[in-house]
UniProtKB/TrEMBL annotation:
Keyword Hydrolase carried by entry: yes
Protein name: HAD-IA family hydrolase
NCBIfam families, alphabetized: HAD-SF-IA-v1
Tree of life domain: Bacteria
Keywords per UniProt: Carbohydrate metabolism, Hydrolase, Magnesium, Metal-binding
Pfam families: HAD_2 (PF13419)
PANTHER family documented for this protein: PHOSPHOGLYCOLATE PHOSPHATASE
Molecular-function GO terms, alphabetical: hydrolase activity
Amino acid sequence: MNQNPFGVLFDLDGTLLDTAPDLGAALNHVLAIHSLPTLAYEDYRNVASHGAAGLLKLGFKELLDDYDPNTLREQFLTYYNDHLCVDTRMFDGIDRLIRALDERNVPWGIVTNKPGWLTDALLPHFEAFTNCKVVISGDTLDERKPHPLPLIHAGETIRLPADKIYYVGDAERDIQAANAAGMISVLAQYGYIRDEDNINDWEANHIVPTVASLIELLIIR
């Protein structure tokens, strides 16, 4: 293994955690409140990385403008907060990856656009995240991804130069932020990628189709 010091930063939803079931349940709750058809998992899974706004747009479609967006968002987030970790799980292999990083004393952290009050409530459900060195949420700083500032701040916290840090995410904004920060961008293709996403245009340094291939990239190196 390459012994040069390096670090890893991760997106959260669609990269470390499969949060789509619980996010989708929140969407379906709001749809049911307004007597609209609910959606199946396969309908909303690949939109989960786009948060409340993206999911509500998916569910309400052309009717979205008929409703107050703040009310819908509040209904969504209230339900999601109350059912934050019902069916959310780590992607298969993530626990092994995190253990391997910890065993090798590789500093790692999380940079997500999820609001801090949700991030802070969700992470303690997973013992594997105990040694996380930094957590930057969508409202921690004045900017959020795709702006590079959250990644730059996280990199400064783990005290490594940008070119020694891998940033792993499943959305275009993740790759944009990593590239702008001068980090090694890694696209988690196993995450919430939509059929219409042209991932080859995102200019990721690496594309990993599975967690196993992510482990190969980061641990075997």
